[in-house]
Design brief:
single chain, 278 residues, mainly beta, Methylamine Dehydrogenase, Chain H, four-stranded antiparallel beta sheet, 28 strands, globular
Length: 278
């Protein structure tokens, strides 16, 4: 059976689930759950039918920004809507979900007395694109969540942000790292950035780059497709807009010890991001 013959509605199982990571993809078909173990891309299925614009995960919770609202994962592996209205981006900050609406409203999901949750408005930005670790990427720059407010943190035309160590920002005029102000790491029109511990990747429409010993080095991917997102589990994971899922396999986690990129086409339309539920 080829990849094209596999329906995303199938709940396919790839061997034992022991040691597998659940990776969630945001796509026009919905939120897709992919099982990945080491270098092996296993089963995948539809976790939530919607038009998903973004997805985030942390701890035991995954959140999706959809055309209808924000949806949170449940213990049963399904997703429940928690309101907010149409969402363009979603992220996690200090254990809370932070979402941004297409018109610019940014809010945090907070518990309320007596049980339940409610959205706390934090402020507005211009054309929000991404949320991560208390930073919001937008047309009018980077914004930081400070208490119950937003504070401008500089730059402009920012497409993505990553907060793990020194914050990184992918912008229309370059890739930036926050040090003594925003320091340009590389020229170019960057759209995607991801980081975890000592690992970091960033992408333009044409190329993926990996940070190696402080330098950004072009990565030779086995597909010529635009990168939609980067995330990290046992290995770095990449997904393209056309629905190709890739794993940069650690040689120590492969049966033949060779390592390198593994890929699988999932046949999904308009993929916009991914997140790993550790």
């Amino acid at each position: 059976m080829s990849d094209a013959d596999i329906s995303i509605d199938e709940k396919r199982v790839y061997g034992a689930k022991t040691g597998a990571s659940d990776v969630y993809l945001a796509s026009a078909a919905g939120v897709i759950r992919v099982s990945v173990s080491g270098d092996r891309i296993g089963g995948f299925g539809l976790a939530h039918r919607c038009v998903a614009r973004d997805v985030a995960a942390g701890g035991e919770v995954a959140a999706a920004a959809t055309d209808d609202g924000v949806a949170l994962s449940t213990e049963e592996g399904e997703f429940d809507d928690v309101g907010f209205g149409p969402a363009a981006a979603v992220g996690l900050h200090e254990g809370h979900v932070v979402a941004a609406a297409p018109e610019g409203r940014v809010a945090r999901l907070d518990p309320v007395d007596g049980g339940g949750v409610a959205w706390t408005d934090l402020g507005t930005v211009e054309d929000p694109r991404a949320v991560d670790g208390g930073l919001v990427a937008a047309a009018d720059g980077v914004h930081r969540v400070v208490g119950d407010d937003l504070a401008s943190a500089g730059l402009s035309d920012v497409r993505d942000v990553a907060v793990d160590g020194a914050p990184l920002a992918a912008a229309d005029d370059g890739l930036y790292r926050l040090g003594n102000g925003w320091l340009r790491e590389r020229d170019g029109r960057f759209a995607v950035v991801g980081a975890s511990h000592d690992r970091a990747h960033a992408a333009t429409a044409e190329h993926l780059y990996a940070r190696e010993d402080g330098d950004w080095v072009a990565v030779d991917l086995p597909v010529a497709e635009r990168v939609a997102g980067v995330a990290y589990g046992e290995c770095p994971y990449v997904v393209t807009e056309r629905g190709t899922f890739l794993v940069d396999a650690d040689p120590e986690r492969t049966p033949d010890g060779t390592g390198g990129w593994r890929k699988r086409s999932l046949g999904l339309p308009d993929v916009t991001g991914l997140a790993v539920l550790a």
